[in-house]
Each structure stands twice: as structure tokens, then as C-alpha cells.
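Sharing a chain and its predicted structure for anyone who wants a worked example. Both blocks are below, sequence first, C-alpha cells second.
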Amino acid sequence: MEQNMDGSMHLDILNHIPSAIIAADAQDKVVLVNAHACMLLGLEEKAAVGKAWKEVIRFDRTGPDPMHSRGNKGQLRNYWAECTRSDGTRINLSVSE
């Protein structure tokens, strides 16, 4: 498969994965949001890309705190989170970072 100049091949593949995926860069800015994440969180890709991920996913409650505890280097950290969608609906998430 060839990648388009804008990287859209990767997004096309990620849009077919039945999980919400939001990718952020080293500065915590959203660089990619797949279709399932947009549907689950009630947001539009254009509105999310470029924002800090903490602005895109607004956690109401978590366990453990995603902002302060880190896993070992190279290891995913998993936690639960309750957040509010853009339409005001509250949802529970399982998060890996």
C-alpha cells in the first residue's frame, strides 16, 4: 500500500479498527483521531487535531490519576475514566497510554 502525502492511508486503516484511537505528539497535542473516537466522544476530527489531548478528553473522574502516575518506560499504563461527551452525556472509558 502506498501512503498518501498527508498520511491518510494510516487514518483509513485506523478508521476500520473497532476501538477509539487518539494519538498525541510529544507536546501532548492530538495528531490523529479515528472515526470510532469521534463517534464515542461526540467530536469532529478537525476540532480535535492540534489541541492538547486533555482538552479533547475531559476526564471527570479516573482511577488511577492519568496526569500523575506513569508506567515503566516502554510499558502501557491502563486506567478507567469517566468523562463527559460534547453533548453532555457521561461515559465510562478504559484508557491505555
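Comments welcome. The two ends are 28 Å apart (CA to CA).
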